[in-house]
Amino acid sequence: MNAEIVRRTASAVTIRAHSHYALHAARRLLIYALLLFVSVFTIFPFVWMVSTSFKSAGTIFALPPQLIPDKLFQPGMFDNYTEVLYRYDFVRYTVNSFFVSTMTGIGQVFTASLAGFAFARMRFRGRNALFAILLLTAFFPTEVTIIPEFLLGARVFHPILQPIGGWMNTFAPLIVPSFMVGSFGTFLMREFFSTIPLELEEAAIIDGANVFQIFRSVYLPLSLPSVTTLFLLSFINNWNELLRPVLYIRSRELYTVTLGLTTFQGEFESAWNLLLAGSVIAILPLLVIYVFAQRYIVQGIATTGLRG
Amino acid sequence: MRYYHPITPYLFIGPMIGGLLLFRIGPIFASFLMSFTNWNIRTNPTWVGLANYQELLSSDVFWLVLRNTFVFVLTYVPGAMILGLLMALLVNQKLKGIAFFRGLYFMPFITSMVAVALAWNWIFSTRYGVLNGMLTTFFGIQRGPAWLSDTNLTLWVLIVVSIWKSAGFQMMVFLAGLQGIPQNIIEAARIDGANRLQIFRHIVLPLLSPVTFFVLIVSIIDAFKTFEVTYTMTQGGPRGSSSTLAYFIYQNAFVYQRMGYASSIAYVLVLLIAIVTIANFWVRRYWVAQQVN
Known about the structure:
Chain A has 308 residues and is mainly alpha-helical. Chain A has helices spanning 2-53, 79-87, 90-121, 127-137, 142-161, 172-180, 183-194, 198-206, 211-222, 224-240, 243-248, 257-267, 272-304. Chain B has a single domain, classed as Orthogonal Bundle (MetI-like fold), CATH 1.10.3720. The two termini of chain B are 30 Å apart.
């Protein structure tokens, strides 16, 4: 009798567990289906970009459009890429973008960590007011400051710097402004420095370290993750920057990838296979960085609300 | 305990302050003054008082651009935010491979707008574009719309592309917010018999509201600043139908060389952003949960 009850209860429990499991599995399946559905929209432009970049000039206008490109795994598969890279100089544009983005990244780390340290750990007159102004000015869109910035460059910096190559049509206007000002970078570094225990600093003071030594050998080494984040965000922003290259750069040998791409678009309106091979080239370095450093990038953007 | 010279902090902030004065504060004041002048690059500026602003108010193009800007903000902001929130809810699960999907959804946000806008240009192309191709194949529509040259459509194309590109950002911020909600509160509500929808409506949404506020402010400012997608896809055309304030500023300053006039438009933009942002902070207390310690 007792054994019978135990057996029945046990089987009831198993049935419930099974149906619960089935429900769970169904729900999981539904979620995966939804995830894939959203993915299709997210990656479709990239897929189409890559697909077109492997098509020959004759097949890009095929109707209906073909997803599988005709050059795929055929001889000359990378012809579009080599043509864009060498004949249309994208090798040089990419190198230029690397240079500009790296320099601004280094600059951001330098100025923002110095300022962030002062705002987090030093006491001085006007500290709060200056920090507030720094954040407030970030609300002004670039469109407001770019006109005077341009005129300042053209009318003041360019004549003064003429002996060493000038300002207009050099990398300087692409690098210096974002090298020096970074509200979000300073904010990020200040937040991070504030979390470092004061005891470390005090111990170093007792050991007789001065403030520069403390900054360099206590704070900076500890903030490597934040520094990495800051460098990468700045790198990405400047890699994608369009307005300043459009305004300042005239010589082709100084083009960045984004400028090269828009100019290319104007010149070869319907060479979509070449244009999109150029797009892939412009995106690929960022994707590689993103895959390897996703953690730093996502965290930085989510905490500071983006941008340099 | 101060173990440094009182001047030392200013050495630390020096480079930053120098940059701030030269490239932010200086230009902010300069462009305000310039908005009262007539200035193309070659000549010297002449003071014209409010003439630029008067010209703006009587210009049909300006009103069209202003209307486009509002349409853009009022559709992009809710679109990107709702989509971002839905995506955040979707990826806020403990499932195998979920990190991959999060990374994938965020990807458009970090890629260059110029590059992806080119791809979209090609997708939206009227005769050979894959979108109209699909309309023909699946719906039998022989001649799809001229997405990038129909004045009724261009602005919407730009809005869709902008939402596509940034939704991953809104998602990531919402996701961080969702993961900051203590599980025990949700557990308690479930034990009290609340269903999923009730939990979302009465617990998750209110607790998320500070994050929602942050996303709202950032999204609005981003929408007002739209430039790159316009520059790459439509150049504001045809006939100004897809031009918004930021692009209009660029066009007047650097294509038509009207620096003073462009500065007055820039200040209209500043004024709009300021009004909307301040208004948002003003109504914040009616819907954003306060931190209770």
